[in-house]
Amino acid sequence: MMLPKHLAQKERAQGLKVVRPGDRAFLPRADWRRDTVASIVEDQAIVRLILLRAKVERSGALTRTLARIRALGMMPLIVEPIGSFAIHLRAKGWTAIATGEDIEHAEIVYYPPYVVLCEHCCGFFEPTRDDTWDEKKALAEYQMKFPGAKLEDCSVVCDPCYQIIMRQ
Question: What is the pLDDT of residues 32-52, one digit of tens each?
């Protein structure tokens, strides 16, 4: 039980709320062993899944947990997956990003496939198109960088910095 305790302390030291199985509805005891560790970045509605140990592997525990997190309007991130789990995430379209300002705080974080990562501000968000998205303004800004571009060439505008993010 040393590793889960260490990981929980590390998350608390970053000012995050540690969640263990049964603490929140998205991480039920029925699916996860007691040494499972997650944390919440409350001001950003993010759930960091740190150490995952399903009671029964390949029974859908992760799929159910991800669905519960999304249903709460939160974004799941998977931190430092190892071995075949990392390979599985990449195959499912998750994006790995190295974060941290130094070697002691460095970590690999996997973002879900529906999340857009902005290279300009390093922000991430789930894109939405609503009434506040000004297509003419976005196209005009985009055409300044890429003359002759059409609206369908750009996909979304970054929520934090308003840069246009090109369609992949």
Answer: 999 999 999 988 889 999 999
